[in-house]
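User: Quick one: structure for sequence A, then sequence B.

Assistant: Sequence A:
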Amino acid sequence: MAIFVVSVWGITYISTKVLLTHGLTPAEIMFLRFLMAYAAIWLISPKKLLADNGRDEFLFLLLGLFGGSFYFQTENMALRETLASNVALILCTAPLLTAILSHFFVRGERLRKNSFWGSLCAFSGIVLVIFNGHFILKLSPKGDLLCLLSALSWAVYTILMRKLNGRYSILFITRKVFFYGLLTLLPVFFFMPPSVELSVLCRPVVAGNLLFLGLVASLLCYIMWNSVVKRLGGVRTNNYIYASPLVTLVASAIILHEQITWVAILGALMIIGGVYMAGKRMGKKTGTPENNS
């Protein structure tokens, strides 16, 4: 499930780019995809409205903020300030940030040497895949910091998910994430009022990409991702994010006919080896998934 989700998320940039070219803003795209996902999940999720207590309800609000509005807004703002390659590279620090935060804030999830070296190997492979033999690195403090905040936001989301996974159903948790993601995005529209016209949304290419982002990349993938976090733990699950550049590499070769160099192939092998090292060896040492600790 983790591989499927990462594969889908790896090609959402194409759908988002198509929507941007038709005049939609990043905030409008996120709002519409979360709105569709929230409306659809009501058909299959429990009709329970609130969490069992105020503390849990506040945690759900944080989930919607860090896994929704804040994550997507900082990522999209970063794309305007720095190179796309920088964004792709920095976002892939999320697994390592998750491991570090879990070491200090999650009981039973310690940062092991095998996990660290596996992450380092995978991240090194990501560098090779993203630049694909053409090393172009242009530092942009503002954009790079925004992207780092986005990666940190996803790490916080993953850790918070562990605190609620055992006490609420995956569908209920995911529905609350969509609700508070929408709610915490609303203040953005006070500064950037929505301007998209209904005629634009009715265009087949726009409607098709919105349906893909809302029902597949959001609804289905968030449900599956949250299920994986429950089964494997936050650290092991987020290690699969390292595979995202592989999807981008293959999609670029098939759709955009971009050349894959031997440097990128070497990077792909390093990513696969690093993910295997971080997950397999950890499993051998504990004998059970992390969430059993």
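Sequence B:
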Amino acid sequence: MTGALWAIVAGVGFGLFQTLNRRAVAGMDVFVATFMQLMISALVLMSVCFASQDMSALWNAPWRAWLNFSLAGLIHFFLGWTFLNASQKRIGAARTSALVGTTPLFASAISLITLGEVPTLVSLAGIALIVAGVFVTNNPLSRKEEGKGSGAATEGWIALLLALAAPFFWSISPTFTRFGLQDLDSPLLGVAVGTVASVLCYGVALGIRSLRQPISAISTDAFIFKVAAGVLVGLSTWLRWVALDMAPVAFVLALTLISVPIVNLLTPLVVDRRLEQVTRRVWAGSLLIIGGSLILILM
């Protein structure tokens, strides 16, 4: 298979993951859901590493590689995935999936601040499309008009920030990944280290939290869907790295955006329609964000 096909398969996997994950988090505590997701993904990735990688390269890697990969994992998985699950639980998978597509927007902002890379006119057009897509997908002010009470606008802003927090952190983590790859040139081993570090830290944090707030019971339905979602995201993460090893980064990122329409199409079939409504507004916002992201990625 070519890098393009691997990227498409990874994008389909991420779309299926977000769809099943929405069903799972509806009946779970956000932090428990994220911990399970991390633990299952770590098991999947470590199994792939032991089966396909020279593990001695990891054991002999300098401490800087371990530190940078761990930091990348904590930012991407510990923080990013927590906000992803919180956003899905609050506004649904479809809106969250569309807003996750704003990652190139934050990457452009970070490049401007850290590298002084001023956006071109074409980039500004892409940014404008993304911003318009965010507004259309989840306009907090419009919630008042939907008859949801005077506090709906405030809740809408909180939900929007939760959704945008995940792509914000996902645009930061690659910096530490690049630093780590300078000392250990194995993206798969790197992402496995980051995932395991996140599991360990999350386990400690969840244990401390459980002393004050007991963990609620998990339904069988939520558990099954969470396990399936965790396996899918672990495999999809691996497949994306395979694609990145065979094709340009921009090309892979563009193709994995296929996850957005997949979520929009499948989520209403898996999740209760009262919890997940994929309206014309959501589709319009999704298309605007995808269009703007493609401009920023492929320009």
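Residues 3-298 form one domain. The chain is about 80% helix and 0% strand.

User: Thanks, that's what I needed.
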